[in-house]
Amino acid sequence: xxxxxxxxxxxxxxLDFNELSDASxxxxxxxxxxxxxxxxxxxxxxxxxxxxxxxxxxxxFNLAAGWDNWSGHYLLSDSVxxxxxxxxxxxxxxx
Length: 95
Hints:
Elements lengths: L3 E4 L5 E4 L5 H13 L4 E3 L3 E2 L3 E3 L2 E3 L4 E7 L3 E6 L2 H15 L1
Antiparallel strand pairs: 1-2, 2-8, 3-6, 4-5, 5-7, 6-7, 7-8
């Protein structure tokens, strides 16, 4: 896995998983739910070269999720608390 972390257009962090397999993405999504207490909210939208997944929601913040040809699967923060979480998750998945 070769994840990247960057500031997105909304001013918050985005974690791109790049070439991560769908099976590995599903494992990460399951961990977010079972181990970190997130709920999935919203409806998925599927396009030709992109998908919007259900968001991950916890008491403190939301993370948008999706997939596209350039980023692979990704998580996008909408708050400072989400930025802190994504930074820690990035540090863990890179290790």
